[in-house]
Design brief:
Strand content: 5-15%
Shape: globular
Number of domains: 1
CATH superfamily: yeast vps74-n-term truncation variant domain like
Distance between the termini: 43 Å
Largest sheet: 2 strands, antiparallel
Helix content: 55-70%
CATH class: Mainly Alpha
Number of strands: 8
CATH architecture: Orthogonal Bundle
Length: 223
């Protein structure tokens, strides 16, 4: 068992960043592709207490910022995020995701390679020009488990674990929830998921809210 996997052997669920990236299929090259590991990393750090919120929204201005929390996860990638957060200036929650997207996708993929769940895929010259596959799946069990957790969150938002709700909302914000769940969630289900979002840790809720705002704006302009 790899060191990374040993850290999570006692729990059934993998970190959100791993599950989201596996469900994304290894694709890179679009903003939504990069948001899966980037936002997933922020969500994991929020759940672990490695990052917290400081400041507030006042008169329409979002003056919240991420700061290092009390918890220390002992996981290199999360510790790297905390170090970068300490140097960050004010930004919107989506801005936090954009910052994380600079380094998180490759780093999360490297974690999955170390776990033995995926292997790197040579992209060739198309890597710089088109959307491409960064890895190939080696073991589908983790992806299938993540799929089951998402479907459980959609079937019963009120009874689902917080991390499963966060994963489902992340997939919705990146346009993957209907495909992973097998059917588009009803409006009632979406409202229930949004209500659960309000109960999540502040960093997690803020990240997911920021992604929802971005998705609504894109939908409004037809992209």
């Amino acid at each position: 068992m790899t060191p990374l996997l040993a850290l999570h052997a006692a729990t059934a669920a993998l970190p959100v960043r791993w599950e989201a990236t596996l469900l994304g299929g290894g694709w890179r090259g679009s903003a939504d592709d990069d948001l899966l590991p980037a936002a997933g990393l922020l969500i994991d750090a929020g759940f672990e207490g490695a990052v917290t919120l400081e400041g507030a929204r006042v008169l329409g201005w979002d003056r919240r910022r991420l700061v290092a929390g009390q918890s220390r996860a002992g996981i290199q990638l999360v510790d790297d995020l905390v170090a970068r957060v300490g140097k960050a200036t004010f930004a919107t929650p989506y801005g936090w995701c954009e910052r994380a997207a600079v380094f998180a996708p490759d780093a999360v993929n490297e974690e999955l390679v170390e776990l033995g769940l995926v292997e790197w895929r040579e992209a060739g010259w198309l890597r710089r020009a088109l959307r491409y596959k960064a890895f190939e799946l080696l073991d589908g069990a983790a992806r299938d488990a993540a799929t089951a957790r998402v479907r459980g969150a959609v079937a019963d938002p009120d009874g689902a674990p917080d991390t499963a709700v966060a994963l489902a909302l992340l997939l919705r914000a990146t346009g993957l929830l209907g495909r992973v769940a097998g059917t588009p969630p009803s409006r009632r289900t979406e409202r229930a998921l949004e209500e659960r979002r309000q109960e999540l840790p502040p960093v997690v809720a803020a990240v997911l809210e920021g992604l929802d705002v971005r998705r609504r704006r894109l939908d409004a302009v037809g992209t």
